[in-house]
Structures are given as structure tokens and as C-alpha cells.
Amino acid sequence: MSAKNIPGDKINLRLILVSGKTKEFVFSPVDSAGDIAIHVYDNWPEADWASECVSRAEILRLIYQGRFLHSSVTLGALGLPLGRTTVMHLVPREHLPEPNSHGECVPHGDPAADLPGAVPAQLRDPRRARPAARPHHRHAPRAARAPARAQLARSTAKEQRRL
């Protein structure tokens, strides 16, 4: 669907399955992720997605910017631009991961949920992978360096007195 054909008060969603197959649907900003799952299930593209068919709408989950969307989240709450196309992933999944006390996702027995952000490996873009966290310097922490700095200052002061 081209940008000309998208009504200015609607959002065009390009949904990508794990297999890589895509289909576009037009929704209102007040539509929730749950509403979208029901609409997609009821209007399943049989010709294109026949091998991806699911048993019920409740197991269809949307992923936007690497995060699963809860069924109550609306497109408007995400701040999606009207009259434009937004890409999301659509995956079959019984349960959403539950956040632990650190805000990280805890899986429900699905090996794909062990990934950061609980996104299946097939959907992760390696170009967007974050490098491992590194300290910003190679030296000892500041507290450990303080005595060495004080010793250096004393020895420098002694040298200046000798001159």
C-alpha cells in the first residue's frame, strides 16, 4: 500500500511473521494490540499465510521496537504517525514474559524468550545489536585511584621543593 492510499487518520501496519512473510492492514489509533490480533485472525490471509495459521486470536502477539505489546496498548499510545506505515512483528505466543524486579523479562518455558527483550532470534536484527557493556576507562575505579593520586601529589611537591 502506498502512502497516497493510507487515510490521514489511520495507521498502516505492515506485519511480519517469523517466516518473513508480510501483509499490510489499516487501523485506527484507538485500536489496541488485542483488537489488531482479533482483526488479523478474522481476516487471515489464507493465500499467503496458510502455513502460519494459528488456532485462536489470543495467542497472536505484536512486537514493536523489540518489545511485546500487551493487548490493551493502543496504537495512539505508541505515538505512531498517522497516514504512514509502521512495521511490527506478529508472532504466535501463549503468554507474554513477566517482568522481574529488575524490569527484565522472565520466560514461560519458551526457549526464544531467553533472549534480551524476549524477542525470538529470527526477529532480531543483528545490525541493531548492542555491544557488550564496557567500563569507560581501563584503570582502577576512582576510589582505588585516590590514594595513588595523593601519593603522586606528595612526591611532586617534594621534587618541587628540592629545586
Report on the architecture of this protein.
This is UBL3-like ubiquitin domain-containing protein. Residues 9-103 form the UBL3-like ubiquitin domain. Residues 143-154 have a biased composition (Low complexity). InterPro entries: Ubiquitin-like_domsf (IPR029071), UBL3-like (IPR040015), UBL3-like_ubiquitin_dom (IPR039540), UBL3_Ubl_met (IPR047977). Pfam families: Rad60-SLD_2. This protein has 163 residues and is of the alpha+beta class. The chain has a single domain, classed as Roll (Ubiquitin-like (UB roll)). Helix content is 21%, strand content 19%. It contains 3 helices and 7 strands. The strands form 2 sheets. A 5-stranded mixed beta sheet has the order 2-1-5-3-4, covered by helices on one side. The protein starts with 10 loop residues before the first strand and ends with a helix. The relative contact order is 0.14. Residues 106-118 have low confidence and may be disordered.
Which tags fit this structure?
single chain; 163 residues; alpha+beta; Ubiquitin-like (UB roll); 5-stranded mixed sheet; two-stranded antiparallel ribbon; 3 helices; 19% strand; elongated
Specify the oligomeric state.
Answer: single chain
CATH topology name, in short, is Ubiquitin-like (UB roll)
- Which structural category fits the helices and strands? alpha+beta
Low-confidence residue ranges: 106-118
Total discrete domains: 1
Strand order of the largest sheet: 2-1-5-3-4
Structural Rg = 25 Å
Biggest sheet details = 5 strands, mixed
Q: What does the secondary structure layout of this molecule look like, with pairings?
A:
Elements (H helix, E strand, L loop, with lengths): L10 E6 L5 E6 L5 H10 L3 H4 L10 E5 L2 E2 L16 E8 L5 E2 L5 E2 L35 H21 L1
Parallel strand pairs: 1-5
Antiparallel strand pairs: 1-2, 3-4, 3-5, 6-7
